[in-house]
Amino acid sequence: MTRHMLRTMLAVSVVCAAAATSACAGSSGPPPVTATPALRAVTLDGAVYGHPIPVGDTVIAATENDSVYAVAGDTVRWRTHLAEPLPRAQLPCGDIDPVGITGSPGYDAAAHRVYVVAESAGAHKTLYGLDAESGAVVLHVPIDPPFGDPSAYLQRPALLVRDGRVYAAFGGNYGDCGNYTGAVAAVDISTGDVTWYRASTSGRGGIWAPGPPAETAGLLYFSVGNGDAEPGSAYDDTDSVLALTPELRRADFFAPATWAQDDAADKDLGTMNPALVAGRLVIAGKSGDGYVLDPARLGGISSAAPAFTGCRAFGAAAVDGEIAYLPCANGTAAVAVTATGAATVRWRTTAPADGPPLVAAGRVWATDWHAGTLYALDPATGNVLAQYATGALPHFAAPVAAGGVLVLGTMTGLRAFPLP
Questions:
Q1: 377/381 Cα distance (integer angstroms)
Q2: How far is CA 103 from CA 89, 106, 387, in A?
Q3: What is the 3-state secondary structure (H, E, C) of 179-239?
Q4: Is it true that the peptide bond before 98 is cis, omega within 30 degrees of 0?
Q5: Inter-CA distances, 319 with 54, 186, 293, 326, Å
Q6: Cα angle, residue 87 at apex, residues 123 and 209 outer, rounded to 5°
Q7: What does the pLDDT look like over 100-125, one tens digit per residue?
């Protein structure tokens, strides 16, 4: 394939799968997609792990080859190669090869700038700001965490741009090896000054869920993974949801009373980004237990019972009104949340759609990134309305809506699917 758009045709298999709450024949949701749309592919110079972002009629995508692209339709408007990526062989563990730009880009609409964190030789991490019109580099700030070993860190979550700062969160590589501590960096765009928050007092406690933090009432909410505290030790700030001020001071936190057992069994909350739904925060981690939290009072170490169970969530949820569509390992689940914090599981899809979902065009879209399939689900029932072959996908691949199509990052670049 070339860098430009390769057009081919994809036959759409429309699958009718019974969900937990209704049979397909009785579904009152949107009609199935029966057309045979064109599948468009753009080959880039590496895998696109972070989800692409729409900027006007252009899609910005960053690759593991440390390149950033602006793509409009079937045209690459610009490409900026920032550095040489780090070969996997130079890391103590991990499953990305090479490691370049992994976290999703951030966008500053006021300045029309795109921001990415690129990894390069020596396992150094650098925040770059690029002019979104031309791709010219306008900012270059080293942001290696000031504790631990550089090679043990991975910048996985989506970047967030707010009020003159870029926020970048860090965890470890796949395998959780080496000496690192979960961290958040806040970079002042005007001065280049970097402020750090250290997420664990014992080590590890990675912040790596691939979506952005939740935001409300001027605070940022992150989830934190398991730490290194020994059984019987004091609480080490891990297995938690934490609220940070814009200056990265901790304002509040939540952790289940079982945090020590969760950490020892690798069943922490750090795999899902907190989601703001009906004024509440929803979080579900590796244990399968889901919690609904009051963002104004998270509760500290809490013995509160889970609000729902059976959802080991990995990635960011999609929110539509009072419904959160969660990226459960056993398939997307729809959870309704009230203003009082009550939660009801409306449905669990029978499809293996476990990637971070998107709500667009009256459907819930989610990938099976293991098999290379994109599913369109009925938001009322979870029934499968259509499925599309995507080619090889990176972990936690998530579609975005841009310019009237769905765009998906793949192991070779981008693929676009027309919305119904």
A1: 8
A2: 20, 9, 27
A3: CCECEEEEEECCCCCEEEEECCCCCECCCCCCCCCEEECCEEEEEECCECCCCCCCCCCCC
A4: yes
A5: 19, 26, 16, 9
A6: 65
A7: 999 999 999 999 999 999 999 999 99
Contact of 253 with 327, CB cutoff 8 Å: no
Residue 411 has pLDDT above 70, yes or no: yes
For residue 387, give both structure tokens: 């499925």
Buried (b) or exposed (e) across 40-55, using 16+ Cβ within 10 A? bbbebbbbbbbbbbeb
User: Which secondary-structure segment (H or E) carries 175?
Assistant: none
Residue 34: strand, helix, or coil:
coil
Q: How far apart are the first and last CA of the chain?
A: 26
Closest CA relative to residue 396, chosen from 154, 155, 210: 210
Task: Please check whether residue 369 is in contact with residue 394, taking contact to mean a CB–CB distance below 8 angstroms.
Answer: yes
pLDDT classification of 37: cutoffs 50, 70, 90: low
Q: Are 99 and 49 in contact (CB under 8 A)?
A: no
Could you tell me the residue ranges of all domains in the chain? 5-370+378-418
At 286, list the tokens: 């590796």
Query: What tokens were used for 170?
Result: 């860090």
What is d(CA 391, CA 177) in angstroms, rounded to the nearest whole number? 30
Taking the C-alpha atoms of residue 141 and residue 125, their distance in angstroms, rounded to an integer, is 9
- In angstroms, rounded to a whole number, what is the distance separating the alpha carbons of residues 338 and 294? 11
List the Cα angle 155/79/356 in 5-degree steps.
40
- Superfamily of domain 5-370+378-418 in the CATH hierarchy: YVTN repeat-like/Quinoprotein amine dehydrogenase (2.130.10.10)
Residue pair 192/204 in contact by the 8 Å Cβ criterion: no
Residue 15 has pLDDT above 50, yes or no: no
Residues 222-273: tens digit of each pLDDT: 999 999 998 889 999 999 999 999 999 999 999 999 999 999 999 999 999 9
Provide the pLDDT for residue 25.
32
Contacts (Cβ under 8 Å, ≥6 apart) of 407: 52, 54, 59, 399, 400, 401, 414, 415, 416
Please give the order of strands across the beta sheet that includes 400-402.
5-9, 38-43, 413-418, 405-409, 400-402
One-letter identity of residue 399: P
Q: How far is CA 245 from the centre of its chain?
A: 21
The β-bridge partners of 320 are: 323
